[in-house]
Amino acid sequence: MDIHFQRCIFNGAYGAMIKERLHNYLIGFVSCIFLSIAGYSIAVSSTSNLNYYEIGVVGILALSQLTIQGIFFLHLSLQKKDRYRLIIAGLIMLIITILVSGSIWIMNNLNSHMMPDASRMNQYIKSQDGL
Amino acid sequence: MMLANLLGLLNVDSFRHDIIQNVGVGIMTLSIFFASLALTYFRKWKWLFGEWLSSLDHKKIGVMYIIVAVLMLSKAGFDALLMRTQQSLSVGNNHGILASQHYQQIFSSHGTTMIFFAAMGLMFGIINLAVPILIGTRDVAFPWLNSVSFWLFVSGMILLNTSLAIGDFSGAGWLAYPPLSELQFSPTVGVDYWIWSLQIAGVGSLLSGINFIVTILMKRTKGMNLMKMPMFVWSVLGSMTLVVFAFPVLTATITLLYLDRLVGTHFFTSGGGGNPMMYVNLIWAWGHPEVYILILPAFGIFSEIVATFSKKKLFGYTSMVWAIWAIVILSFTVWLHHFFTMGAGADVNGFFGIMTMIIAIPTGVKIFNWLFTMFRGKITFSAPMIWFVGFILLFSIGGVAGVLLAVPPADFQLHNSLFLVAHFHSMIVSGVLFGYFAGIVYWFPKFSGIKLNERLGKIAAYLWILGFIVAFVPLYALGIMGATRRMDHYSPSMGWQPLFIVAGVGVLIIGLGLLTLVSQVLYSVYKHVENKDRTGDPYDGRTLEWSIPSPAPHYNFSILPIVKKTDDFWESKQEKRSRDLVYKDISMPKNSYIGLFLSSGAFALGFGAVWHILWLSIVGLLIILGSVIARTLTEDTEYTIPKEKLILDDIQFYGEGK
Amino acid sequence: MENNLVIKAENSKSYLGFWIYILTDCVVFASLFAVYATLHNNTNGGESAQILFSMPLALTQTIILLTSSLTSGLAIIAALNKHKTRILLWTVVTFLLGSLFLFLELREFNHLASMGDSWRASGFLSSYFVLVGTHGLHILIGLLWMIVLGLIIIKKGLTAKSMKGLVMFNLFWHFLDVIWIFIFSVVYLMGHMGL
Question: Whole-model pTM?
Answer without folding.
Answer: 0.95
